[in-house]
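ok new one. same drill as before - structure tokens go in, u give me an amino acid for every spot. 608 of them this time. try not to just spam alanines like last time pls lmao
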């Protein structure tokens, strides 16, 4: 988390830094700060809260005309999200911004304090600044001093550094957290957390590797590896990432993004379906017959996407499909070998735990696949196979269109694998493919429930707890619905397998407990219907999302239901995602919470 930008052009950089921070705010918005260097003076402004607070201060105080500067958006790890802890930190001649966590920070801090250092913030970043400042005192050469100081750090970090008296020099270093160098389209050099941050200035991007340092001036840049050797890194040409920060005529990015779903599903499907032949196209080198087990790992919303995928993949491959959250997977010493196909699902392609899980799987000999939305991300570069989700840039912290594209890819993969293994006949595979191709229209139709959902949202806005229930692929959708609601409304919500209700949650049911029951008309409908009656008998406040026919039956029982368009069982998780997204959104709008940037969250979680 935390976003970093650094610019050295020799021309005033303050405006460029702000434009880039706007693109980086998705990584954290607890505080923001910028510093520029001009004639031996540091101009610095920092502000707690969103970037707009910083902009206001800069409008009043200015930021000088310095031709070199660094900026930061923060997601707090060490120390409260106040101005004192905001970056950049200034320690002697060192001006520094940091993303990541320094694990031996207490030890280093203790040592520094013992030697008389004055530490004014609670951050681990300030400690790095002191180490660099100390090394600068004993080393004439800046490059040697930086490498020596950073060599003392344990943990994950990306850093951008300026040194007073060295106004030509912008310094970057990375280990565990991403950092890229941009070669200016017009002039100068840039360093940033991702290609998006560099997109206003640069199409030529160099991704630093683990342990790399970069020393950039207006005209040159040098990269050293962890052993201090000068190295060449590949220059990647990035396509223009345009119009990403535009809400169109929507009030929030979230609304814009979920209404884009029919379109982005089409774009995603175009990668996997040959519309002339109705065949799924998966890279033939990704040969499922070589494996006997599939493991899927992810975090947050992407984890629920993987859970939906598990139901499909088990059905079409007859293989054991294991799904785990990355933070658990990587520490439980999972048995892995070359017969395992490992699939990581991630919007950003940078989530620290998911990335570590991918690396672990590679190390243990698994073939690795990344279902990923950001083509320039670390996972895209490191996985053996990339299955892109073409959701476009997702700005709202709560994921919507990326989720639906993730399950789109997993659906296509399930068909492709089933056919390769001869578990699906050519005929069945082609029917499922045609079904999948009808998704954009079906999703469009599913938005027809919006008015009814708005009414429901106004009631949900008054409660403190909500339960979501579902069976089979509706179970992960119930969990995703609960996650969306808690993320953006702060109402406590849980998703349960409907069959688990009797094993505990039923104790919570009374007339104040709303239950959202996701019940498409499929093989498990009758079972879910029994659960509905059990809840009704105990006075629970029930709302059932189901088909038109079933909705009428439910209403005849005196219960509430909202009717979604009919679909095949295969496509039901797509259809039922729409009402749970709409419910979270309209509840949040009614409550007046910050829909796009909910408290405490960040879009890309690059720390463990
Ligand atoms: C954060 C975001 C979630 C996202 C999760 C995984 O928690 O707030 O929306 O689902 O990270 O992110 P990834 O980029 O790996 O999909």
């Amino acid at each position: 988390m935390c976003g970093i930008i650094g610019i050295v052009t020799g021309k005033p950089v303050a405006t460029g830094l702000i434009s880039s921070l706007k693109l980086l705010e998705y990584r954290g918005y607890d505080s923001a700060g910028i510093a520029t260097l001009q004639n031996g003076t540091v101009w610095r402004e920092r502000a707690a809260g969103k970037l707009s607070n910083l902009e206001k201060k800069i409008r009043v105080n200015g930021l000088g005309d310095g031709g070199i500067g660094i900026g930061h958006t923060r997601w707090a790890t060490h120390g409260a999200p106040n101005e004192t802890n905001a970056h950049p930190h200034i320690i002697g001649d060192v001006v520094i911004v940091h993303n990541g966590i320094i694990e031996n920070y207490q030890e280093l801090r203790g040592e520094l304090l013992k030697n008389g250092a004055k530490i004014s913030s609670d951050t681990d970043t300030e400690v790095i600044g002191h180490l660099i400042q100390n090394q600068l005192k004993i080393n004439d050469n800046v490059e040697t001093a930086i490498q020596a100081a950073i060599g003392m750090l344990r943990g994950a970090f990306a850093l951008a550094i300026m040194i007073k008296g060295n106004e030509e020099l912008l310094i970057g270093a990375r280990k565990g957290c991403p950092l890229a160098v941009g070669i200016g389209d017009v002039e100068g050099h840039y360093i940033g957390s991702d290609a998006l941050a560099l997109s206003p200035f640069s199409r030529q991007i160099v991704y630093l590797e683990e342990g790399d340092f970069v020393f950039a001036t207006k005209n040159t840049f040098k990269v050293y590896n962890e052993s201090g050797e000068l190295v060449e890194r590949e220059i990647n040409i990035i396509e223009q990432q345009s119009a990403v920060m535009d809400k169109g005529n929507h009030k929030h990015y979230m609304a814009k993004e979920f209404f884009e779903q029919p379109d982005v599903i089409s774009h995603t499907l175009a990668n996997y379906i040959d519309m002339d032949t109705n065949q799924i196209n998966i890279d033939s080198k990704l040969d499922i017959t070589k494996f006997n087990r599939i493991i899927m790992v992810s975090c947050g919303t992407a984890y629920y996407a993987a859970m939906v995928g598990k139901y499909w993949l088990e059905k079409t491959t007859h293989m054991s499909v294991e799904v785990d959250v990355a933070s658990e997977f990587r520490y439980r010493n999972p048995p892995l070998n070359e017969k395992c196909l490992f699939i990581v699902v991630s919007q950003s392609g940078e989530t620290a735990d998911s990335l570590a899980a991918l690396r672990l799987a590679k190390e243990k000999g698994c073939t690795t696949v990344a279902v990923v939305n950001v083509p320039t991300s670390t996972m895209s570069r490191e996985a053996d196979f990339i299955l892109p989700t073409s959701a476009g840039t997702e700005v709202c912290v709560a994921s919507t269109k990326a989720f639906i594209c993730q399950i789109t890819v997993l659906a296509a993969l399930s068909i492709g694998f089933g056919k390769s293994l001869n578990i699906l006949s050519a005929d069945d595979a082609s029917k499922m493919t045609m079904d999948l191709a009808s998704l954009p229209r079906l999703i469009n139709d599913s938005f027809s429930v919006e008015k009814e959902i708005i009414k429901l949202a106004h009631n949900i806005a008054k409660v403190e707890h909500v339960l979501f229930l579902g069976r089979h692929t509706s179970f992960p959708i119930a969990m995703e619905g609960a996650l969306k609601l808690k993320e953006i409304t702060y109402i406590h919500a849980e998703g349960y397998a409907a069959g688990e209700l009797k094993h505990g949650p039923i104790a919570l049911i009374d007339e104040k407990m709303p239950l959202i029951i996701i019940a498409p008309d499929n093989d498990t409908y009758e079972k879910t219907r029994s659960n509905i009656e059990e809840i009704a008998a105990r006075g629970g406040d029930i709302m059932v999302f189901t088909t038109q026919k079933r909705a009428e039956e439910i209403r005849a029982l005196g219960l509430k239901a909202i009717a979604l368009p009919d679909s095949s069982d295969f496509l039901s998780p797509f259809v039922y995602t729409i009402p749970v997204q709409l419910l979270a959104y309209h509840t949040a709008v009614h409550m007046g919470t910050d829909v796009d940037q909910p408290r405490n969250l960040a879009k890309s979680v690059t720390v463990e």
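The longest strand covers residues 94-102. and btw The chain has 20 helices and 27 strands.
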